[in-house]
Structures are given as structure tokens and as C-alpha cells.
Amino acid sequence: MTHTSILIVEDDPMQRQMLATLVRRKLDFDSEGAANGREALDILENGPPEAVKLIILDLEMPVMGGMETLGILRQRYPAIPVIMLTGSKNIEDAVQAMKLGATDFLNKPYEGDRMAVTIKNALKISILSKELSRLKSEKDGTFIFENLIGYDGGLLPAIQVGRKAAPSDLPVLITGETGTGKEVFARAIHGESHRNGHPFIAVNCGAIPLQLAESTLFGHEKGAFTGATEKTTGKFREAEGGTIFLDEIGELPLDTQVKLLRVLQQKEVEPVGANRPVPVNVRIISATNRDLRKEVAEGRFREDLFFRLNVLQIEMPPLRNRYQDIPALAAHFIERFCANEGGIPKELSPHTEEALLAYPWPGNVRQLENVINRAMVLSEGNVLDIEDLPGLALSSDISPTTAANSVFDHKAEDLSEEHFLEKDTPSIRMTGHEGHFKTLDTIEREAMAIALEHFNHNITQAAKALGMAKSTFYKKMKPL
Predict the structure, then answer these.
(1) Are 56 and 32 in contact (CB under 8 A)?
(2) CA distances from 306 to 121, 165, 200, 250, 316 (A)
(3) What is the CATH number of domain 417-480?
């Protein structure tokens, strides 16, 4: 059920089939059926995360009825919109369902067009609610590590360090390639610090004109220089009580670096043209995609400032090293696009998903977002296919077709299960260092890791080689 969008919970098999046909023909969505609430909860618990985008839930069913199921759904899966159905004309049922958190309520028999419109509206409301919640958390400083895509995946090592850094006021230096999400990570550090609720001010040092760097950061007095018609406080004082994030810190001119060092040492800024320094209370998080040690050696960055900024260093992994997060990131960007531009979410075809996983992503998460946005514009149906992804060719010689072929058109002997077994691959020891037998869970995870490495992180082939469903492989892959 990897690409299921709608879960239909209805005890009447014919009604289930009619609804499945309706959503396929009118909305081009796949669906999964359940005969009662218990089956529906089992599907949600055992299926891939966020596979179900919407639930159509019948009111009267055996084993577990609609109202009881709705109550559990609102507790466990509050982000999934639920449309209630009933053959009863009792208005109290509708009132109770809406109080419990149903997105909408329809009486049987319903018109197909009305159902299609209701589904579209429910999906749009759900997407807008998620985006508003995300924006609010970023604005009020409550954005935390659990909000990060990759929280229990490829970002886990960085998050473990970030969690330790968050409670203190020590400077943090976030390093990594362009587009890896350094600012978002800095927001999570701020959100889990005692400064949350206070300003988070992000400054791109590379975008500040050299002659204005000092006044932009530290402020200036009226008349301090030509064009200074008004007094400004500067970014550091805007961040009072909170966190200032200095992105592209390696781009700062040397004379501004001297002033920044004073801020770190004295906890005060000196506005341009001012007679006396002004105390500030801010936490500094900086980021760079440069090798600052090399910059220091070549005289472009002050060594004393580097040591003051590099108290706690966190390396953000490139997207090619956190491939397991790509499907979730793509789904997130699809929903963000829908929230900004309108419309309902689209799904990735199996070929498209495999191509995304196979691509090296030199531009990292930012490039993935751009590729998804372009695909959303170009695609005509509700499925993003490989032909909708010309952006895969950006910054690389790999075209979308080549990316897809790298997964699907290898020679049979290279990707066959027989070749996997015959090839000289690492064996798995049944015992650990102390001679005790390993648990089956440990052995299974080791086998999955070996299969992934063997098939160049091709999840479909790795799962096939191990005789495992792809959705099960995804679910078990989190600890790897």
C-alpha cells in the first residue's frame, strides 16, 4: 500500500468497490479497503508512514463502529482528514462526528461529484493546516527536532549532537554542503533551547554588500555615513533574548570579523557612528559550506574568530547519504507546493520514486524541492511520472531517463537475486563479540544493510532479494 491515498472503511463490499471506482475515475487516486474500524487501524499501524492521505469512514459497522474508530483516529492520526458516511438522517450523528474531529459528513446515497468535491476540499484543508502549523512553529520558536524530516532517519546523528547543544548558550557551527538544510536545523536548536519564544534572526552574510556588513549586523546612528538617513538597530539587537543565525559566515569581510569577535567576547555591539557600545544578549549559531580551517590557513578568515565560533560543530549530511529520507521529503514538498499554489497532493509513480532514490543530488534538499516544484507544474494528472522530472538533469550529466534506467535497466545478471547470492558479499555472524547469539531482529537489520549496500541503495531490489515486501522494508529500515 505504498502509494495508497484514500482508505475506505465500509462494511458493505459493494459500497467499498463503488467508492474505490469513484476515487480512481474522478480523482485518479489509489485506495485501500477495510471492513471495519479494527481493520482500518491495522492498515494504518502496519503500512508505510503517511501513505494514507484521507479516510472515508462509515458510521455503522460491526466489530468497531465509525464513532469509536473516529475517536481513536483523532488521537493517533490527527493529521489525516476523515469524511464520515451514514445512511441515517439523524442530525445528531453529524454533530457528534464533527465534534469528534471529522472533516466532513455525508449522507447516503451521495452524488459522485459531491463526494469528489468533498474529498478535494478535505485534502486542501488538511494541507493548509499543516503548512500553517509549520509556519507558526517557525515564527514563535517552537520548531523542534521532531519537526525535521529525517528525525529518525538520516539526520539522527546530527540531531543527537544538536540535542546536547540546544540547552546551552555556547556558539554552534553548522557545516555541510549547500542546500542541506542548515538554517532549518538551526531553527530546531533554537526551538529546543531556553530562548525559544524569543526572536530567531537569520542573516545570509554572503548576501550583504561588503560596505554594509557592519551596519547591517550591528546597526548605525543617523548620519553615520552617506545615506544613513535613519538610525537602525542592526540584526544582533533585533535578536535580543533569542538566537542569531549567521549563514555563510565565511563570506564576512575581515574588518567585520574583528567586530564579531568583540561581540562574542564582550557581549556587546558597537553601532557605526555610536559613542559607546550596546550590550546584547543573543546566542550565535553560524553556518558555512566552506572549509574554514583552509580559509584560516589562506588568510581569509580570522583564526581567533574560528575558534570562538567552532565550540560545538555539527555536520549536516548531504542528501545522497540520507536517501531513506527522500520519499518523505518529496511528499513534504508536494504538500507545501499545494498549500502555496492550491490543488491536492499528487503521488510519485514507482519509477519516479526509484529515480529519485538513484539520483546523486548534488544540490541536496534544495535541489529536490526545485525538482518537485517543477514536476508539480508540468504534470497533468495526479501522479508524478519520470517524464515530469526534467530537473533531475540540473547540475549533472544524468538525465531523468538515465536516472530511471540506472535503477530499472541494469543487466539482469547484475540485479538478479541469483547474482546477489552468488556474488562475494559479506557474511553475517550468528554470534556477537562475547559469543552470545544475536537476536533475529539484529540479524535481519544486518542483512538489510548488506542488501542495500550490494544493490547500491536500490530499495526495490534489496527488498526483493530478501523476500520482503517493499513497504515492510521501508518500515524496518528506520534503525539502519
Answers:
(1) no
(2) 52, 18, 22, 10, 18
(3) 1.10.10.60
